[in-house]
Amino acid sequence: MVNTTKIHPKNTEKEARHKQETEHDGFYRQIIKSFDVQCRKAGKNLDWLYANLHPSFFITMKEEPSAITSLAMYLHDVPNQHKVILADQEKKYIVARQDIPGSLYETLNELKEQDISYAELIHSYSPIPGSDRDLEIQKYEFERKSHEEIAGAKKAVIPGRIKTRITSFMKTLYPSFDFREFDRILGLIWHNNEKYVRISPLDWIARLMWVFQQGIKHDGLFVDVERPVSLSRHSESIRLFFSVGNPPQKGFMTQVSEVFQRLNIGVRSSYSLNISTGVHPYFLGIFYVLPHGTDLLDTGSDLFLKLKKELYNTQILSTSRTTYVNFVANRIMTGEEASLSNAFIAFCHTSLAHNEPDRFALDRIKSAFYSDPDMTLRLINTFRQKFDPDIKDRDDAYNESEKNILKAVQGYNTGHKYLDEIRKTIFRTSLLMIRHTLKTNFFVPEKHALAFRLDPCYLEEIGEEFTSDLPPGTPFRVTFFFSRYSVGYHIGFSDIARGGWRTVICTTHDEYTTNINTLFREVFVLAHTQHLKNKDIYEGGSKLTVVVDAEGCDSPASVRQRLNKVQFGINNSFLDIFVTKNGTAKNRNVVDYYGDDEAIELGPDENMHDDMIEYIAKQSVKRGYILGIGIMSSKRAGINHKEYGVTSRGVIKFAEIAMKELGIQTDQDSFTVKITGGTNGDVAGNGLRLLLERSPRAKILSIVAGTGALYDPEGADRNALSELILKHDVVDFDPEALHPGGFILFRKERRRDGLRELYRKISRTGTE
Prior knowledge:
Elements: H1 9-52, H2 55-60, H3 65-74, E1 84-89, E2 92-98, H4 103-110, E3 118-127, E4 134-141, H5 147-151, H6 160-173, H7 182-192, H8 194-199, H9 202-217, E5 221-226, E6 238-245, H10 252-262, E7 265-276, E8 281-291, H11 302-313, H12 322-328, H13 335-352, H14 362-370, H15 373-387, H16 394-410, H17 417-436, E9 437-440, E10 450-454, H18 458-462, E11 477-483, E12 486-492, E13 497-506, H19 509-517, H20 519-533, E14 540-549, H21 556-578, E15 580-581, E16 584-585, E17 600-604, H22 610-623, H23 641-644, H24 646-661, E18 671-676, H25 683-694, E19 698-704, E20 708-711, H26 718-722, E21 743-753, E22 756-763
Parallel strand pairs: 13-14, 13-17, 18-19
Antiparallel strand pairs: 1-2, 2-4, 3-4, 3-7, 5-6, 6-8, 7-8, 9-10, 10-11, 11-12, 12-14, 15-16, 19-20, 20-21, 21-22
C-alpha cells in the first residue's frame, strides 16, 4: 500500500520564500565578510603605498582622498586587471596599472583628443605585492585656461609664504635664473593653475619656472638633463627638462611618450603643465627617466643627442602622416628621417604639379615614397652624406652615394611602365633637390621648420615640361621651407632683393590642395613681377609665400595660434641658414656650399600681423642677421604699409589714370568696382578707404575675401562699409545695410547635405 501526502500550495510558497530569504541572507553575509577582508587588505595596502611611493605623490593627491581610498582597496587587483580607474570625470582622469613597456603611451593615445592641462606619472619603489611589476599611477587634468582669460587677468596675488619659499629654492637650485622675471613667470603659472601652485612641492614650481625661462631664451625649444640632487630609492633616474613654445596640440604628449618608448628610455615619474601665455600655449615638462639599455643619458652622450633631436622634431613631424604611422612607429625610420621624406614629398609635388596637376597629384607623389621606403632611405642617406657636419670626407662620400642612387633611379622598374615613369621623375626631382641645395638647417637640432637654399639652375635640369608655365628668366635664389603645417618658397631675382611675405591660410583639404598645387608658380610670378616693379631701385624683386594647413582648427583663435607657429618657425629656419659670419653660415650644423652673405628684405603681406612684424625684426637682431631690423619693413620704427596705404595709393592712382584715359573722372563720375581682398587687409582695405574718400559716386558691387564675399547690386552701403575698413572682415558687414538682391556669403560657416557642402548665406530679398 502506497502512502500519499497532499501538499498544500500555501506551504510550498512559504518554504520557497524562506529558502530564498535564507540564501539572500547568506549572500549578504558573504558580501559583508568579503568587505571585512577587503578593508583589512586596504589597511595593509595603504601602508604599502606610503612605504613605496615618493612622498610627493601624497602631497599632490591630498585633494583626491577617494582616489587613494580606491587604490588602497583595489591595489591587489591591479596585477589582474588591464587598469584600475581611480577617477574618470569630465576634468580629471586617474588610473593605476602595472608598469609595463608602452603603458604610458597607451593611455595618452586614448586621451590624445583631450586638452591636457596637467599630467603626473609616478612608479612605486618595488613591485606590487603578489606581482613582479611596479605600480604605475597616471593622473591627468583637463582644465586649460583660454588665452583671453590669461591675457585679461589682473596681477596675481600670491601668498608671501609661497613666494618666499620658491625664491629660496630658486636661489639654491638655479642661481642663474633671471629674477627680474620671477613675479611675471610665477604669476603666469598661478593664473593658469592656482591649485597646482598651492598644493605642489615648491621645488617643483621653481623647476617649472626655470624650464619656462630657458624655453623662452632658447626660442621656444629647450631640452636638458641633470641628475637628481636628493638621494632616494630611484636616485639613478635622470631629471630631464623639456619646454616647447606653442606646441602641436592634439596628441602632442602621446608623441613625446612615443619618443621615449622608441629610444628605449623608461619614464619613472614626471609632472608637466600646459599653460597659456595669453598669446599661445607653452608645454613645461620634467621627466625622471632611466635608459633600459647600457647607453648613458648624460649631456653630450649619443643617446642624449638622439633624444634631443627626436623631441625637437616633434615640432615638424605630424603623427597623422603615413611616414610616422608606417615608418617611425614601426622603427623603419627615425623621426628626423620621416620629416625629411615629408619635405621631399612636398618639394616634388610643388615642383611638378603646377604644370601637370593630375599626373603629379599629391597622393601620387606620396605613394611613390610610401611604396618604396628603401628608395626613400637611400635618398635620405645621400642627403646625409652631403650635409651632415660630422661626416669626414663628405664630398667623396656624397659623390659615391649620388652615383649609386642615380643609377637606381634610372633603372627603376617594377613592371608597371606608367607608374614607373612617374616615379622615376619624382625620385629624379628629389635627387635634383639634394644636388642643388647649397645649405640647409636639417642638422640644426633646435628647429621648428626646415629650410633649403637651392641653386635655381635645377629649374633648367628639371625639364621644360615642368617650367613652360613660368615667366622667362632664372631667379638668383630659391629657398624651400617645410614645417608640420606648412610649405613655402622664397624666390629672389637678384642678390639683394626685397618683397612681401604672404601667408595663405587653408581651412579645408580641398583649399589646401588647390593652393599647394600652384604654390611654386604663384611665388615665381609674384617675385618676377616685383623684380620688374623694382627696376629703378638697387633692390631686385622677391616674394615669400607660405601655405598653411589649418584644417581642424575650430576657432579663429586656434587658426591664429597655428599661423603664429608657422611664421615663427619659418622665420627662425630662415635665420638658421642666412645668418653668416665671414660669409659662411654661422651655425656649425649648417654645411654651407654657397659661402657668402645674402641680404634679403621682407615686407608684410597677407596674414602678417603687427606683433609678428616686430618679432621678426627683433629676432633678426638677436641672431645677428646682416640686415638687423632692416629684414622687415612696416615696423613701429619705420613706415607701416597698412597705416599709410603705400601700395594701395599706387594701385588707386594707376586706376585713376587708366580710367581718365577712358573718359571717366573717378572723383566725379559714377562707376562700379569689384574687388578681391579683405576689408581689413593692407592693399584691399586701404584701396577701399581711398575709393570711399576720393570717389563719392563709386559703387562697390562685390568684395571677395578669404573669409567670404559680399554682393550688392546697388553698391555696398558706404557707411556700413566704412565700419569695416582696416578693422573687420567682409563677413562682419551689417546685413541690415544690404539692398534688395544683396547677400553675404560666409566661407567658413558650412554644413554638409549629403555629398554637397553648403555655405551660410544671408540675403536681402524684401524692399524694406
